[in-house]
Amino acid sequence: MFSPRGYTSFAKLWQEFTTKHFVQIYYQSARDYAGSDARRSFNRGSPADICEHIFLKSFLKHQVVVALDARQVANVDVEIDRQFNSIYTVATALESKLIASELLDGHANAEAFQRFGSIRFKPWAFEHDDPVAWNKAYPQMTGEQKDQINIESAQFHTLPFVFERLRFVVPHAPPPWTEGALHREYVESLIQRFPGSSFCLSDNDVGGWSHSCKTSIAAFFGNDNTVYQLGRPRKVDDVAEAINQLYPFGFENVPHKEKLKRVEDVVGYSVSDATLKRAIRKLKDRSKLGSKSS
Q1: I need a labelling partner for 74 at 20 to 30 A (CA). Which of 146, 175, 283, 287 fits?
Q2: What's this model's pTM, rounded to 2 decimal places?
Q3: Which residues, in sequence order, are CB contacts of 228 under 8 Å at separation 6+?
Q4: How far apart are CA 126 and CA 117, in angstroms?
């Protein structure tokens, strides 16, 4: 995670940010996402995921660069639009759980999960709408318990696309879960232009950025009062709805290619095998939940 003279790497700024702010972010996450509101966390992720999201969005008003070598830098935009094309776009906790169940097998994929998600990535192990499990995993704590809140051991439940977690370096190749992502072109473009480059901030901007971090935290918790949906869940939901519409009585005996073609005809765009599998799995999860409650 090198940075040219006159610039500071995101990896170093992350250490400063978490040292100063992670305890507060944990407190507010555990409080605001408690009870029935815990369902929002299945998009946002753990307190560590939320901390990382706030950290990356805190650079929106600053010129971020990537270090091409020990002397050269190139400007990059933290976000191109307010939907998907940003460095802070990650697979949601629910998506990441599905991705891990499909791809976390074999040495090559295991290496990618560790590189992008870090060794502290752990798929959320419970039902995606189980707030009780969330509240047990991330309980509200008193001031006397703050020593138990440690970013160095905090788990992540989401998977990044355009940076390697904790190192904040552009990868040399897209992660295997990029297929089906609505912002795939953005991901691949950034990686093709800046492979191996570390995200940095000019030393002239570090003081202003550091001073604005509390404002970024307040803005996040002040505005985050709705379920946060990214591109991939919408696509999966569209495909799941199409399957329900086409096959209300089941689709077990329908050939895969026929099913894929008919779904594409309904949604109006191409659908990858991975997205189709996620949609089918989502329908099966719904069916299980329905049978439990009946």
Answers
A1: 175
A2: 0.73
A3: 40, 43, 44, 92
A4: 19
